[in-house]
Structures are given as structure tokens and as C-alpha cells.
Amino acid sequence: MKPTNLNDPEYFHKVVDCQYACPAHTPVPEYIRLIADEKYTEAYMVNWESNVFPGILGRTCDRPCEPACRRGRVEEKPVAICRLKRVAADNKGDVKKHMPQGPFKPNGKKVALIGGGPASLTVARDLAPLGYEIHLFDEWHKGGGMMRTQIPAFRLPEEVLDEEVNYVLDLGIHTYFNHFVHSMKDEILSKDYDAVFVGTGAPSGRKLNLPGFEEAGDNIHIGIEFLASVAFEHKKSIGKKVIVLGGGNTAMDCCRTSRRIGGEDVKVIVRSPFKDMKASPWEIEDAQMEDIPIMNNMPPKEFVVKNGKLKGVIFGKVYADYSSGRRKLIPTGEPDVFIEADDVIIAIGQDNAFPWIERDLGIEFGKWDIPVLHEKTFQSTLPKVFFGGDAAFGPENVITAAAHGHQAAVSMHLFCEGDNLVTDRPDPMTNLYRQKMGIHEWMYDSPVVEDVRYKVGHEDKKKTLRDRKVEVELGFTALEGFKEAQRCLNCDVMTVFDDKLCIECDACMDVCPTDCITFIKNDEEDVLRLNLRVPALNTTQDLYVSETLPTTRVMIKDEDVCLHCGLCAERCPTAAWDMQKYMYSVTKTYEMEGCCSK
Amino acid sequence: MTYIKPTFRHPGLKKNKVGYVRADYEGAISTLCAGCGHDSISGAIVQACFEMSVEPHRLAKLSGIGCSSKTPTYFLSNSHGFNSVHGRMPSVTTGANMANRDLIYLGVSGDGDTASIGMGQFVHAVRRNLNMAYIVMNNGCYGLTKGQDSATTDFGSISKSSGLNDSFQAIDLVGMALELGATFVGRSFSGDKDQLVPMIKAAMSHPGFAFIDCISPCVTFNNNKGSTKSYQFVRDHQEATSTIDFVPHEEEITVDYEAGTSTSVALHDGSKIHLDKLSPNWDPTDRYSAVMRLQEAKLTGDILTGLLYIDPKSRGLHDLMKTSKRPLNSLQEEDLCPGSAALEGINAGFR
Q: Which residue of B has its CA nearest to A510?
């Protein structure tokens, strides 16, 4: 194998599993350390820089970081990263003074943002400090987009949402609320906007056109529409018996919302096996705790309507066959089942919808009516129009929308400056610095604690089911937050090896608690992987390979289960190993070279 | 403060035949200087015991005083241990071995503990062919008392504390062991685990006194330029007599050994030691050739390593003394006092 190229910013980035997995590459270990230090405001700002909505995401994020967390590879459960983020948001001081302070000197450029959700708000935040005049359009009376319409208040209190949306809007954004853009051509492109961003999400809930669908009328609801009308208090009640069709997070929100507005016997019924459900495990758990049974392997066949009123749904029974590689649902031959229902909510997916974009503007649409975009710049085929969030590549989540927003903002800024969107794109900002303070002393808490993941408290069910606005999760207390924060392995503190200093005494190899280090004759990667002290079978994790050492061997470190405990550096007599903190930051518009704010 | 070894271990650790993983053979975290050769030898002992599938409670580790003699704390936490008086480890081991012949005895000593204060003990343990593995962690200085020259400091070697040794010749423990009739004599280097681990395994299997002189650089006082026991010097001057491979009795031989250059030594329990010779005019079972090779290496300034001599017909102390096959500590009153009838019988034998 060739020696590892440490000049590649992605090598160490990949070692910080959580940050690497986060679409916005939030420096997770950095803010977790700040939380442990009770520096909540600073922890909040690290988040805000990177993901714009720490309080919202601390409650509702899809948490791609947690399955990636290294801790999950050495013990049972990962660090409760998402809940720690909320600790920062709950305990922060005055954060506003740390944010860019307007009014900003106008740069003479004007941009339009269609849709007021997380993607658009991120673009707004990133461009406002540069002096852009930003016009934001949204069909609802407040900003937030799907965070407001689709995430129920018992998971995300309105105050939290308002607060973080307003941090952005207060940067001097011109808002056009209650304004549905009907024509891209007439309302936007005909105006003098230098660039346009489309962040209109995936607003169209899928229907299930089974027999009886039309006849059942008002008693069949589309998931995201149902959630929006409850959020805006257009809908205040539902029948006692409710069936929710679908196994994603929207289905979980629908069933739990139903329990709060009159649903007593609420069931979730999925057509496939339980384990194939798309909903996050914790959301499934929360639904089950609210006495909502989840029935699986039951595809709906017919809505039964009598005398113009919905009576229930007929389901078939199937089992899943994976033998062909693709899942097939095969009828078991058992008789169909009729389940009574006063209301049915269909939450089986949602799609993009761009009826308001004329098809003769040069904005091309591809398969499934998704816009044709450059995957890094988010630029459409009409150069001044950019897309992001769910509107770009189909439904994802809030954190992905924020990540898109940052990149789209960079693109729009480059575009407005007349720069090349690809070649002039800024690299991430990275930095490595030593953590050594003295003998056995590092700037981070290197000892590895053995605590198992802390559970977060829940509000009394009697109370939460009575009022849909009462938040269910209480969040960690400051002490719980500290303890959970200590579980973080500080994966951003890198083990950096200098082959020129190594005397090959084996001290690091002998002391490493997880046998990550091997001194061995170099070979091809697949051969080496099998011949290390413990075979490195997790190929998603890199091998760190040194230059050839005097004994003609190389040092190989399997990054897989390194605890970042610093013992290798501690036991190294020549400081060939050093612990160095790696900072990796996705460059935002206001950090770009030649930029007015910095 | 990081001097805490996490308890998390690699989830992919392999189990040996008795169901333990390597981590089960570890000890407390070392308090020796970072980079000390002794730690590496501890690592080799852990590795060897794991690979040998030693049940930890069937092994006793004994030591005297010194940096080397601290190391039993850093390996085999679940084994029996005795940290004895300075230089008296061989005597304590002799006593323990007499009482319970069923344990594996691993003695750890240093150049001071063996070549100075313990010399009188050491030579008699060799002479008696006490069944034990005796490892000298030889760093050529008194590391624990600030690095003064020891009895194994080579003439002409420079150390940080004492400067140039232009006064005294060094005691060569390997040469001495050979002269005293040791039945297993090896020399190795802490920085060469490929050689050291199989050598320790062979030593633990050898029926009799198995001596390993292991050069172990003192990173703090004797790893400087001009020292003959530094990592650099040993690497530059190491001359291995052979590669060594230890094959336990129940295992198939999987390596092809080239005829002519390789020697296979069978041990009493059916294990085999394979030596792939790198050194001409040398036969590991011929004491005379071992002594000659050692002298030749001395003349050329090389550090001869490897398993230098082994007597395949070695008989340990219990065998020589024809003691009870059952460990003495397991003999009950009825075994030791068989009654007046038996006494009568013995007395009758003298009449």
C-alpha cells in the first residue's frame, strides 16, 4: 500500500465518523466537548454555523451521525449526539450577539428564494451578510416550511421553531408570506433577480387509489396535508378509530397526532415486514409507547364505505420473500382482514411538484419530474436558477436541506461574482493542532468512560396525549448532558504518526487497548487487512499506512475501533505519535476569500 | 491525565483453545518509561501465553527487584505471582517448583538482578536444571537507580549516566549459561517479536532450565549514540543464527522447511521447534558449536541472537531428583505418614 496522504483533507475527515456522516459536516466532537465544558452558547454557535437550526435538529434530526458513531462499534450504543445538540440549545445564553449583525452593506445583488423551509433559510443566512437583497416567498403565514407544517408541536415546540427561523429572517430578509408563487416566469424571472433559489420541498403527498377511495371522501386524509392542517388548527379532531397506512416518520407523526386530537384506537398498518419500516427506530418506539400498535405484512385492498360513510379497510396478508435479491410480498393465502376505522390517514410518501414552473424557461426536468441539476453546485440548466432541499433530488431531511443550502449559497455567490462554480469553489477549511499540555495531559478528556447511553426523560403521557403542544421529550438535564458528552470518543483528535521519529520499540502496539496498530511488511491492502494484529475486516474504515521504516516494515493503523485514548502517544518515547485535533469546516459564503465580512 | 487504560477491546479478538482472548493475558498498564524495551517483552510474553493457550491460573510469574522485575505486574494479571527479594527469584522459584511441579514457571529478572546480586542464585538454578523459563531483560544499566553501568555493560559502550565504560569487561550471560551446562540458551531482542515470541513459547515448553537473555534498550539512560544496547545499535549488529518457529504438539506442521538448512528439535511433550539456519558451522544441539559461534560473533562485533543451544534430552530437576510425580503440595497425611506397618517395612529393609 502507498503511504497515507495526510494532505488529503478527506482522510482525517473520514475518521470523524459522525461529522463525515452528517450531510452538513457539523463538527460534532467539538461541540460535544463544549457541552461538557458547560459552554452551551459556544456549542450552539458551532452548530448554528454549520446547520443553522440546532434547537430544531436537536429534536427532530434524522441523525445520520448516530449509526456512524464509532462508539457503536466498540459497545452497544452510539453517543446520543442529537439529544446533546438540544442540551446546547436548551441551555445557551445570548447567542444573537455572536451572529452576524446587520444591517449589511448592500452589494447591489438581488436574489429570490422560493419556499421558506430549511434550505431557503440556509441560503438566506449565508448570503445576507454579504449584502445580498433577499426576497423570500412562502405560501404560509410564517417561515419554516415543512418544519412547521409536517413536524408536530409535541416533537418541536413552536417557540423553538420561531426562534431559529427568526434568527435568519432578522438578518434583513424581505419576506413575502401568504404568497404562493404561481408562475416562475411572470413572478420571478421577469423581475431583476440576479439568482433564484427553489426550495419548495416535496409538497405532494402520495395517494392510494384503491376501491372506495373516492366514496370515502373526507375521512381519508393525506399524511402531510393532515399534519399541516392540524398544525394550523384547521383540523382539530378526528374519529375514535384511526388507521394510518405507511411506515415512515410521517406515519409516526400522523398516528401520534391522531392520539392527541380524539383518536382512541389508532393503528399503524404497514404492508411489508416491521423491520423494513423506514421510520427512525426512536420514532417507532415513541409511537408504541403511546399505545399505538403497528401491524405488519398487511397491504390494504379496499376502503369499505357504507351509506356514504367510511367503515374500515380490508387488508390482505403477505409475507416477504428476499430470495431473489429484491423483496417480494407474497400472499400467505390467509383470508383478508377487515379493520374498522372512522378515519384513514395515508402516509406512504411524498413527491416534488413544480406545476408553477413553466416548462419553456430552459429549466429541464428529468425522471419523476425532478429538476436536472449539477450534483455539487445545485445549478439547474437555467444558469441563474438553483435548487436545494427536498426540491432538488427528492425527499430527504432537514439536515440535508441545510447542507444543500450552504452549497447552493456558495454557488449563487460565485455565480453573481462571475466566477466558475466548480473550479473556483472553495475547499473545506482544515486545521491540525497539537493537544499535548504535559506528561499524561492533553487538551481533551482522553480517558474513555464506560457509561452506557443515557436515556432521556419523557413528559407524563397523560399530559402529552391531552394537549398536542406539550413536548414529549424533556431533553437531558445539564448533568445528564455532561455524562453523555463524556461518552464521546473525541474522534477528531487524530493519532498522527511521524515515521522519521519512530524507533520501532513497539510501545504503541503493545499498549493500544483495541489492537489498532501493527508493524508489518508492506503488501497489498487485502493481504494486509488479514494479517494485522486483529484482522481489519471493516473495509469502510481506512488503514493509516506510514512510509517504510528502517526495519523495512511499515506502521499500519486500522482506524476502525481506535478509541482516540492517546495511549499510543503517551507511550511513545520519541513523540512519533502525537494527538492533534483536526478541524474540518465546510466553507460558507461569508468565509470565502475576498469576502466583505471577513 | 490519561494513565488509564480503557477496558474496551477490539470486538474481533480471537479466542484461543482455552477460550481466552489476548486481552485476558494482559496486566496493569506499565509505569515504566515510555518506549522501554521491557514493555515490549511483556507484550511478547502476553502474546506467547495467548498463543500457547496457557490457562492463566496454571502459570506462576516470579521476579526479583529492578525495572525488569516490575514487569510481572504488566502481564498475566490472572496468574500467580511472587515479587521476591533482590536476586533471589531463582531460589523462590525453586521452592515453588518443588512444592508444585504442575505449574509453568516464568522467571523475570534483569542484568543487575541476575549478573550482580543474584549471580549466586542464578548459577545454581542453571546447574540444577530447574524447570522454568528464565528471562533476563538486559538493558546494560541500572535503570531504576538512574542508569549506572551494570555488570553486562559492554566494554567500550557509552551510557548517559556513566559515560564511556573503559574499565570493566561485561559478563556474557549466554556464554556463562552455556558453560554452566544450561539445557536451553537463547538470546533475543525486545524489538524483534517475530523471534522473541516463539522463543518464549519454546522456553516455556522446555523441560528444564530455559534461559533467554533478551536485550532490552533502556530508552531513558542507555539508548544513546555509542551504547551497545540501543535500538539502533542492536538493529545494526543483530545476527540471527536462525529463524525460529514453535509448533505445539497438537498442531500440524504447515510450513515447508528447506532440507539441509533447517533443524527440527522435538520436545518431550511432542512439540517441535523448527530452526531455519542462517548461520553456517552451527548446530543448535551441539554445545561446542554454540560456544564457538558465540566467540566468533564476539570477534566480529555482532550480537548473536536466536535459540543458540538446546539439549533435546534435557531432564528437569524433579526428574533428576526422582521426586513424586504428584505435586508435593497435593500429598495428604496418609501419603506422607503411611502408618506403622509401612515404617516396619522400611525398617525391615535395613536389617
A: B43
A223 and A326 within one domain: yes
Which residues does chain B have within 8 Å of residue A75's beta carbon, measured at their own beta carbons? 8
**The last residue of a domain, from among A393, A417, A441:** A417
Residue span of the structural domain in which A336 resides: 205-350
Which of A392, A417, A442 is the C-terminal boundary of a domain? A417
Q: What CA–CA distances, in Å, run from A536 to A32, A518, B9?
A: 28, 11, 14
Query: Nearest-CA residue of chain B relative to A570?
Result: B34
Euclidean distance between CA atoms A352 and A29, whole angstroms: 35
Tell me the residue length of chain B.
351
The closest alpha carbon to B112, from B93, B76, B88, belongs to B88
351 residues of chain B, pLDDT tens digit each: 457 889 999 999 999 999 999 999 999 999 999 999 999 999 999 999 999 999 999 999 999 999 999 999 999 999 999 999 999 999 999 999 999 999 999 999 999 999 999 999 999 999 999 999 999 999 999 999 999 999 999 999 999 999 999 999 999 999 999 999 999 999 999 999 999 999 999 999 999 999 999 999 999 999 999 999 999 999 999 888 888 888 877 665 555 555 556 777 887 777 888 887 777 778 889 999 999 999 999 999 899 999 999 999 999 999 999 999 999 999 999 898 989 999 999 999 998
How far off is chain B from A564, nearest CA to CA, in Å? 10
Please give, rounded to a whole number of angstroms, the shortest distance from the CA of B268 to a CA of chain A. 31
Q: Is residue A177 part of a domain?
A: yes
**Pairwise CA distance, residues A340 & A313, whole Å:** 6
> What's the domain range around B322?
22-329
Place of cell 396525549: A465
Tell whether A446 is covered by a domain: no
Query: Which residues of chain B neighbour A505 with C-beta distances below 8 Å?
Result: 35-37, 40, 190-191, 217, 219, 231
Q: Between B12, B30, B231, which is nearest A537 by CB?
A: B12
